[in-house]
Specification:
By secondary structure, this protein is mostly helical. The protein is 59% helix and 9% strand.
Length: 175
């Protein structure tokens, strides 16, 4: 994608811009997200070369184009705010996970260092000592993953909605 292309969204009904189509097995219809969901995911697949504009193809009818454009921008603002609120809650969970993981790691290392030497025979002592060290480090695996990697998709989601909000929107009426 050269970066100057548009994302085109074809809607059968203006209400499908924000609401997903309903599944109707009798008509062999498939589950599809709203037009905004489709726009978001198409934008994400071309994230390196972000499209320059949006073209909404609507069925024949009378539409307040400015209201539709403002609604898309308001939807993006709402999604950004929602993501940021979830991010705050996620930060609190992240702290609890890291503290719990570290305490468990310290406990495992402490037991393996100071209490295992009282167990006989030595082969069982070695097995328990190494096992506690491994279990302790495994307990810190997920908190470390959360700390290092789980925030990237959140930032990308926010950036995608910010870019969508800034893109010019053209509305074309299908004949």
């Amino acid at each position: 994608m050269a970066g100057n292309e548009s994302i085109e969204i074809y809607l059968e009904d203006i209400h499908h811009l924000f609401e997903p189509k309903h599944l109707n097995p009798l008509k062999n219809s498939v589950i599809q997200g709203s037009g905004m969901d489709v726009l978001f995911f198409r934008s994400r697949t071309h994230f390196r070369y972000f499209p320059k504009s949006i073209i909404l193809h609507l069925p024949l009818g009378e539409y307040d184009k400015e209201h539709i454009i403002k609604s898309v921008k308001k939807y993006c603002d709402s999604k950004i705010e929602s993501i940021k609120m979830h991010q705050v809650a996620f930060k609190n969970d992240r702290r609890i996970n890291i503290i719990t993981g570290l305490l468990f790691l310290i406990t495992c290392l402490g037991i393996s260092k100071f209490m295992i030497h009282k167990i006989h025979p030595e082969s069982l002592q070695y097995f328990l000592k190494e096992g506690l060290v491994i279990v302790g480090w495994i307990s810190i695996w997920r908190p470390t993953e959360i700390l290092l990697f789980d925030w990237w998709p959140v930032k990308k989601h926010i950036r995608t909605y910010e870019r969508i909000k800034e893109m010019p929107i053209t509305i074309e009426i299908q004949k």
